[in-house]
Amino acid sequence: MSGRSPFGLGVARGLPFIVIMLPFGMLFGVLATEIGLPVAQAMGFSVLVIAGASQFTAVQLIAEGVPAAVVVLAALAVNLRMVMYSAAMVPHLGSAALWQRAAVSYLLVDQTYALAVSAYEDSPAWTLRDKLMFFAGTALPVFPAWVGASWIGAALGGRIPESWSLDFALPLAFLALVGPMLKTPAHVTAALVSVAAALAFAWVPWNLGLMIAAALAMMAGAEVERRS
Prior knowledge:
Layout: H1 6-14, H2 18-34, H3 39-48, H4 52-63, H5 68-78, H6 81-93, H7 98-107, H8 110-122, H9 128-156, H10 169-178, H11 185-200, H12 208-227
């Protein structure tokens, strides 16, 4: 680790994600307004949910006229990974004050989780305060970038040229997160199974194939971990 404070280190590691979060958030804002959501509702989505994959899933299903119950269940299923993220954070931040845990849970997204867990593993001597400060540092650039970009996309709507191809940000965001975390055979197995299953079940309506793929990937990764 460098000589920076945990907070400064967190900010430094979170800043590069702005490059991805800006087009990612703008794309969500554009799609949300294209299906008829006013800017206020689109922003409420980004501020309250703060989960890009879940928000994109919900917006796409709404555009297809899927029943509201299925939209909610699909969005929740996509966001179930946050349960696993929370469980992984308990050994590090479980003893924090209630308000601190509430703040962490609100700001716990793919980027802050990936950065925090990696740093915690590399710095076993960090105190609880160090870990909290690092997490706050990672969230400082990520959260405003997501909300601000969502507002830009929602406010401009269809005026953003299609030639900008903002949709590149969605897969790029997750590749940037997942790649460095493939450290064990279980991780690699889960990633490969998820890709194969997502392609195999792409025909399932309402994007439910993604949930099938996620379940199969978790089971495959858990089995490899058990055997090793």
